[in-house]
Amino acid sequence: MLVAQGSDEVGAKHAIEAAINLGADMAPQTAESEEEVGIRLADTWHMICGGLRRDLGAQIFGQWIKPIALSRFDSVSGELHVVLPSEFAANWVRDRYAERLLLAWKSHYAAVKKITFTAKAGSARIAQVKKSNAVPLQESSDAATGKFRLDLDPRMTFDEFIAGHSNVLALNASQRMASAEKPLFSPLYLQSSTGQGKTHLMHAIGHAYRAEFPDARVIYMSAERFMIEFVSAMRRNEAMEFKAALRDADLLMIDDIQFIVGKNSTQEEFLHTVDSLISRGKRVVVAADRPPQALDGVDQRLLSRLSMGLVADIQSAGLELRRDILQHRIASMPHQDVPADVIEFLARTISRNLRELEGGLNKLLAYSQLTGRPITRELAEEQLSDILSACRRRITIDEIQRTVCEYYRLDRNEMSSKRRARAVARPRQVAMYLAKVMTPRSYPEIGRKFGGRDHSTVIHAVKLVEQLRGEDTEMDNDVRMLLRQLES
Predict the structure, then answer these.
(1) pLDDT for 117-166, tens place per residue?
(2) What angle, 0 to 180 degrees and rounded to 10, lies between the N-to-C axes of helices 422-438 and 455-471?
(3) 302 with 310: CB under 8 angstroms?
(4) Alpha-carbon span 351 to 342, nearest angstrom
(5) Which of 456, 407, 454 lies closest to 430, judged by CA?
(6) Over the stretch 228-238, which tens digit does the pLDDT of each residue have?
(7) 270 to each of 155, 177, 230, 253, how far by Cα in Å?
(8) Please, what are the domains in the chain?
(9) Whole-model pTM?
(10) For 305-348, what is each residue's pLDDT tens digit?
(11) Could you tell me which residues come within 8 angstroms of residue 93 by beta carbon, excluding any fewer than 6 positions away?
């Protein structure tokens, strides 16, 4: 049995043996050998897991996807059997992630036509094989020999990073850090909340720097991995080898540095490593979800080092940037038709972080491909209800009515009145449209808030305003202005 493990590492010999065992269960009716197919499946699963971890977040991935074990593959029927630790876990993953998993497999390995989920408690776990081009779930190292293996996501490059007002400083600073020119600052401290692009920029720096200096020694790891490797080296009496390997780097990048604070020994080692690298003109990049001054329990000397370079803050992505990211993602996937109103809906509604935004789009595309249903606003609301409900600011219909009346200079009672004059009816229809766009309320619920109107009246209003936005620039500007007011 072969299992995807995000952070567990074993020797390459055991990993290859695991892949060969998986291949031995397959019908030998393919041009590839059993060993090659086994390794290819393991490699593909590693890439799929890398994408799912970013889309779903570490917590959900660790709870539901990481425990999945590849068990058996029938090359004749294309059926891939996977195993989870319990019946409950198998049912949960089957109900919620089966379609997304199947689409991911089809995209990377077309021979997989079906996935079967079963439960087998207490299954033995073997870490999955890694090939040089695999998308990693976790960085790995061999500190005892003084070497760290660099695992960078090939998709996280500067070309794939979408620039906007909120991230332009961090992007420019990252590009300068990776260029042939000596940087004006070191360390570079990238700061933002979760899912705004810190990790993408660090991977992009690594790719660009290696392209500029192919023989450079580059280390990228999370703060958690730094602590694990350091403690492990100390227990093996190999601390000197670990320190030498770190200080031999030309470019050192540590992600999620907030998790290294409060640990006296690791803080001390990190401080000396940063001092050594900076004094020799080497490059250091760190990332965190808060500014240096807000790190809890940090040694003042380390705080001084982290603050002495450039602190580049990445603000939350604005609406325009979110639109650009969605359009870029769709453009990279041929034959995907996503209407403009759906892009606008996703960009406005999923605003907490970019990982959720891309994850929502991926889920919508997967569902459409696997079911044949066209992508519409209604499909997006149906399939992304969990993401949308978590992201929506709790705007009320009362708030919408009040804002619309102020904008059009109407009495609030007109929202419930029977008057049908255009000067009253059109703002009322706009308010109904906004209520549907910005709240989770159903058509009948919205109708009741507008003087007990029938749900068909609300549906007509929503469709009319959508149509008018495409035909009438003034109407579109009115709606955009109201949306900004309500979202601010």
Answers:
(1) 988 643 333 223 233 232 333 334 444 334 566 778 888 999 999 999 88
(2) 100
(3) no
(4) 14
(5) 407
(6) 788 888 888 88
(7) 29, 20, 10, 12
(8) 2-119 (3.30.300.180), 140-313 (3.40.50.300), 319-389 (1.10.8.60), 397-487 (1.10.1750.10)
(9) 0.55
(10) 888 899 999 988 888 999 999 999 888 876 778 999 899 989 98
(11) 64, 65, 68, 84, 101, 117
- Between CA 478 and CA 462 the distance in angstroms is 15
